[in-house]
Specification:
CATH superfamily of chain B: Lipoprotein localisation LolA/LolB/LppX
CATH topology of chain A: Porin
CATH topology of chain B: outer membrane lipoprotein receptor (LolB), chain A
Number of domains of chain A: 1
Shape of chain B: globular
Low-confidence stretches of chain A: 1-29
Number of helices of chain A: 1
Mean pLDDT of chain A: 90
Order of helices and strands of chain B: HHEEEEEEHEEEEEEE
Radius of gyration of chain B: 20 Å
CATH superfamily of chain A: Porin
Structural class of chain A: mainly beta
Low-confidence stretches of chain B: none
CATH architecture of chain B: Clam
Structural class of chain B: mainly beta
Strand content of chain A: over 45%
Strand order of the largest sheet of chain B: 6-5-4-3-2-1-13-12-11-10-9-8-7
Number of domains of chain B: 1
Order of helices and strands of chain A: HEEEEEEEEEEEEEEEEEEEEE
CATH architecture of chain A: Beta Barrel
Distance between the termini of chain B: 66 Å
Shape of chain A: globular
Helix content of chain A: under 10%
Number of strands of chain B: 13
Number of helices of chain B: 3
Number of strands of chain A: 21
Largest sheet of chain A: 18 strands, antiparallel, barrel
Oligomer: heterodimer
CATH class of chain A: Mainly Beta
Chain lengths: ~400, ~260
């Protein structure tokens, strides 16, 4: 449905037009939009690094404009959304990515999307097992929430019995890794351009995926199947044992995600079965979120969440959440500044290792936002993949300006 | 003939007198609801101005699309343009009279559609003085009705009704509604909190008529009498019968709202 009324940024469009950057074959289309943000952040690590290179202070700026236009009465549109970060500490974190760059065609009962795009599947908060379309942009944040744009052809079909999404992904994106000077690194770091593939086609392997999703009353259900390159590589030593190399296997993965919403309760489950040459395993995340609305005679909402994470894969070095629990509390003030605070604790029941995090944000005026993020690790298990992070507790402050 | 009219009038008067305040309140609510039927779908833009006690303002820009559903609550899609940090956030609601509404929110930064709980009726919408229940679609079974009195309010002859919410999680014990007798439009609502004290007063002004039948207030002001804050909604660009269907109110549609 085209909502045709929009903010037209005449100035920006005229400027671009003068520079000769804009030429559109569809003359009557007048709806352009240029939005986005620029942000500056500073991260302070509470301890010296275990390794000699990284320092305790790191500053960084990111710029993410988004250009959008539509025509054909809103049935066709184009979005271009690059993301660019410059980091003072880690050259690997200085990077450019097109989060989105696609053409979209919307019809009554189907949609076709061609280009680079971002897709989210799933319902849980602690990790996103079923969400396998986009590669993780790990240098952005080690919480794996940031994703790289994925080239794809995506056809969505809408039926009374649900939505079917078909994906063809002709090009694979490699995971980004922290470099020698970055915090949150391991003893050896991943060598640039060293990735190896199980498939002879390498990065040009054609990945395919299908997903059915539907809402039935209080239930939201998704069923998915993916065949293609595993976004999560095996990490191998290089021949000289001086660096790590990612080895990308081909995988088949079936996934199920379900949410049951009843009054103030959200019950969530995600489960996958993943089949690769090196291993076949099951993993699931299940839990509950409950919200107390308008607590303490105020507009403050307090949400509590608990999730259990299970994973039976062989490789200990990959399964960081094989028997873990997440406990979280979300405070939402519902004020003019949209103030929020999220506190989370992940506890490994097998090793007693833990990590906890605080995320807070608040708007300033109509265009600014300030966010605070802090992570603390308590890791004693020498075999854990997270062991090198034990001295990497940090506090980060970020200011964002939207335009 | 003259005698016949007298008798007829007496009959009508006595019939009216036989109506209990509950019946009369219900009849007025029904008439109000009936007069606003048949618009099929509508869209509008809204600017929301929030004022705190010190007169500081913050602004929200929102677009709203609704689909009228026969024998069920309306479907609604709300898209946020301002403030910029939540631009592209979209909210989809299938409202129902007495069973809980179905609601989803789309978070553009994560490209994530989240099903959310609809129990939060009394919480503030976007940090404003409007609660979710104040802006949700009006359905007859949501309330019990009581006719209180006739009263002239700002030059309009009005019915004054008392509405008692019958749905769960309302923040109100009751509200008093001033409805003008001529066009059956809301002129004023007083909301009483759970302790039964006056909480908020809503005013409806700048009414305009659309398609010869549908009155829409272009300005709505909510004054909170307890915390001194207020919120004004300025509505523009009303459109009706644009040919939208249920297919335009799918979960998937949230993702590409601009």
């Amino acid at each position: 449905m085209p909502i045709s009324r929009r903010m037209t940024l005449n100035v920006s469009v005229k400027t671009l037009g003068c520079l000769g950057l804009l030429y559109w074959p569809f003359s009557h289309a007048q709806a352009y939009e240029l939005t986005g943000y620029i942000s500056g952040e500073h991260r302070y690590s509470l301890s010296n690094s275990l390794f000699s290179e990284p320092e305790q202070h790191a500053s960084s700026v990111a710029f993410s404009p988004e250009f959008y236009t539509e025509w054909d009465e809103g049935r066709q549109s184009l979005i271009i959304s690059p993301f660019f970060r410059v980091d003072t500490q880690d050259v690997e974190r200085t990077h450019l990515d097109f989060r989105e760059l696609h053409w979209l065609l919307v019809q009554d009962s189907w949609e076709l999307r061609v280009g680079i795009s971002k897709v989210f599947w799933g319902v849980t908060e602690s990790q996103h097992l079923v969400d396998v379309i986009n590669q993780t942009d790990l240098v952005e944040n080690n919480d794996t929430e940031d994703k790289l744009g994925q080239p794809m052809i995506n056809l969505s079909l809408f039926q009374s019995w649900g939505t079917v999404d078909l994906f063809m992904m002709p090009y694979f994106r490699e995971r980004t890794y922290v470099g020698l000077n970055g915090r949150l690194r391991s003893a050896l770091v991943v060598e640039e351009n060293s990735a190896k593939y199980e498939s002879g086609a390498g990065q040009r392997h054609l990945d395919i995926a299908v997903r059915w999703s539907h809402s039935i009353g209080e239930w939201d259900i998704g069923l998915s199947h993916f065949y293609g390159i595993n976004r999560e590589p095996l990490i191998l030593l290089n021949s000289s044992r001086t660096a790590l190399i990612p080895f990308y296997e081909t995988m088949k993965q079936s996934g199920l995600d379900v949410q049951y919403t009843f009054e103030s309760w959200l019950w969530k489950l995600e489960t996958i079965r993943r089949d690769t040459k090196s291993d076949t395993f099951t993993a699931f995340t299940g839990g509950v979120e409950y919200t107390f609305y308008n607590t303490f005679d105020s507009n403050l909402d307090v949400g509590v969440l608990a999730e259990y994470l299970f994973d039976d894969r062989n490789s200990e070095s990959l399964a960081s959440f094989e028997n873990d629990g997440l406990f979280g509390t979300r405070f939402t003030w519902n004020d003019e500044q949209s103030s929020e605070l999220l506190f989370g604790l992940i506890h490994d029941f097998s090793s007693n290792d833990a990590g906890w995090s605080v995320e807070a944000s608040r708007r300033i005026g109509n265009r600014w936002k300030v966010s605070l993020e802090a992570r603390f690790y308590n890791i004693k298990d020498k075999n854990s993949v997270l062991f090198p992070l034990r001295k990497d507790d940090y506090i980060q402050l970020e200011f964002m300006r939207y335009f | 003939m003259y005698k016949f009219f007298i008798i007829l009038m007496l009959t009508v008067t006595s019939l009216a007198a036989a109506q209990t305040p509950e019946e009369k309140g219900y009849a007025i609510a029904l008439e109000t609801d009936n007069r606003d039927k048949g618009w099929e779908d509508s869209s509008a833009a809204m600017k929301m101005v929030l004022r705190n006690r010190h007169g500081q303002e913050s602004i929200r820009q929102i677009r709203v699309v609704n689909l009228e559903m026969e024998s069920d609550g309306d479907k609604g899609l709300t898209v946020f343009d301002e403030p910029r940090d939540i631009k592209g956030t979209a909210f989809l609601s299938y409202s129902h009279a007495l069973v809980p509404d179905e609601q989803w929110i789309y978070l553009p930064a994560l490209k994530r559609v989240k099903r959310i709980s609809s129990s939060n009726k009394s919480g503030p919408f976007m940090g404003s003085e409007f609660a979710y229940e104040d802006i949700s679609s009006f359905e007859i079974p949501k309330y019990d009705y009581l006719y209180l009195r006739d009263e002239v309010f700002e030059g309009n002859n009005c019915y004054v009704l008392e509405l008692r919410p019958q749905y769960q999680y309302s923040g109100y014990t009751k509200s008093h509604v001033w409805i003008d007798k001529k066009e059956y439009r809301n002129q004023k609502v007083e909301y009483y909190d759970r302790k039964n004290s006056l909480l908020k007063v809503q005013r409806f002004t700048d009414y305009q008529l659309y398609l010869g039948q549908y009155w829409r207030a272009h300005t709505m002001t909510m004054d909170n009498k307890q915390n001194g804050k207020s919120t004004t909604l300025y509505w523009t660009d009303f459109k009706f019968k644009t040919g939208l269907t249920s297919a335009d109110f799918k979960k998937n549609d949230l993702k590409r709202q601009r």
